[in-house]
Design brief:
Layout (H helix, E strand, L loop, with lengths): L1 H12 L3 H104 L6 E5 L5 E7 L6 H4 L4 H25 L5 H63 L9 E6 L10 E6 L13 H18 L4 E5 L7 H13 L2 H6 L10 E5 L3 H4 L4 E8 L4 E8 L6
Parallel strand pairs: 5-6
Antiparallel strand pairs: 1-2, 3-4, 7-8
């Protein structure tokens, strides 16, 4: 009922007129914006209609161009087919022309030989006068075969021509192959120089890559050695201090020596490839795995590891949130006493036997055995009237003896 009354009084005292006026002003501004948006929407619709009309016209033109393009593509395909057929026939015709030209050259050479032989033997051959471009007639090597007998004028049979043509081509191919085999490769020197240039470029790139690889390998090895050096430095410090801290957290009147804790590497040569084993043996207990310890024993072991790591690279302060939840009253008193002994003022007054450093700590706890050893208390409570949280502070240093 008191909560509801306070809430009712709070709601009654609230000034709702100002928010309502703000909302009315916001409503008016939104209406103006809505009107502007309607105008913009109408303009956009008109523009969209014009654009759609233009798109229809452009689509019609595109269809016309597409039909025209299809017709052109068909014509191009037909021309390509004709060109392909002509290109397929062209080599055959060229071969035939070359063959006829070869035969013609042979016949002309034979004709020249016969003409020279007839001149030596003083034989007259029938010739024809040929009109030159200058208009004068001259006696050239143009024989008249009309006076020969019909036996010599008859065409040679087809199979004989093919036989002579095949023999001529075979002899020509043999001579060409012989000439090519005996001819030197004049481009060999240029090719050799090009290959030498490529080899030099490849060698330079290889040397640069090998040098870069060596530099990177050296940097990597130096970083790796530095990493292992820093890790081993931290590990050696923590492994030496963890046993001392664990003994301080576990010793009592009945067990003045306390427990034993130590760290060991699974592989000392390559510590980063394997793990670290943490072993903690409370007083009067034999060796067992960490998972077999109780909750309080695990908490004490974890705190010992935390304080040991902190001793290597100290931080300004700790914030411990209910680390005593799993501890009994005896272990709570031990942990509180250890943190009290490591406070900055205490360490400044008394030097630690283990050479540790002091630190400040903020501990959240619900056990009086823990926070009664603090130097100051900060309490948090709820203010029901104001419906909020408030804090109280209390200095305990003046009550220390």
């Amino acid at each position: 009922m008191s909560k509801l009354k306070n809430q009712l009084e709070y709601e009654q005292k609230r000034d709702m007129q100002v928010p309502i006026e703000k909302l009315m002003e916001t409503h008016k501004s939104l209406e103006k914006e809505l009107k502007c948006l309607h105008e913009v929407e109408s303009g956009a619709k008109a523009e969209a209609e014009r654009t759609s009309n233009q798109m229809e016209v452009l689509k019609a033109e595109a269809e016309d161009w597409k039909s025209t393009s299809d017709g052109c593509e068909k014509a191009i395909d037909e021309l390509k087919k004709q060109n392909f057929r002509a290109a397929a026939v062209l080599p055959k015709l060229e071969r035939q022309v070359k063959s006829q030209e070869g035969q013609l050259v042979q016949l002309r050479s034979l004709q020249q030989v016969i003409h020279e032989k007839c001149e030596l033997e003083q034989l007259k051959l029938p010739a024809v006068k040929v009109q030159t471009d200058t208009g004068s007639s001259s006696q050239e090597l143009v024989l008249d075969y009309s006076q020969l007998s019909e036996i010599y004028l008859q065409d040679m049979k087809l199979y004989k021509r093919d036989k002579f043509e095949a023999e001529f081509k075979q002899r020509t191919a043999t001579l060409v192959a012989k000439i090519e085999s005996t001819a030197p490769n004049l481009k060999a020197l240029d090719q050799y120089e090009a290959l030498q240039r490529k080899e030099r470029e490849a060698t330079e790139k290889f040397d640069a890559a090998r040098k870069e690889h060596q530099e990177i390998t050296e940097k990597y090895n130096s970083v790796k050695e530095r990493r292992q050096q820093l890790f081993m430095e931290a590990f050696d410090h923590i492994s030496k201090g963890i046993d001392v801290i664990y003994k301080q957290l576990t010793k009592c009147h009945t067990h003045p020596l306390g427990g034993t804790a130590y760290l060991n590497l699974e592989n000392e040569d390559e510590p980063f490839r394997y793990g670290i084993n943490y072993t903690a043996m409370p007083p009067t207990k034999r060796f067992r795995d960490m998972v077999l310890l109780s909750g309080g024993e695990k908490t004490v072991a974890a705190l010992a590891l935390l304080f040991a790591v902190h001793s290597f690279r100290p931080s300004p302060f700790f914030i411990l949130d209910e680390v005593d939840a799993a501890l009994d009253n005896l272990n709570v008193a031990k942990v509180a006493g250890f943190i009290r002994s490591k406070s900055c003022e205490r360490v400044g007054e008394e030097q630690d036997c283990d050479g540790g450093c002091g630190f400040q700590s903020i501990v959240i706890s619900l056990k009086d055995r823990f926070y009664d050893k603090a130097e100051a208390l900060v309490g948090v409570y709820r203010d029901c009237e104001q419906n909020c949280s408030r804090t109280l502070t209390f200095d305990l240093t003046k009550y220390r003896f």
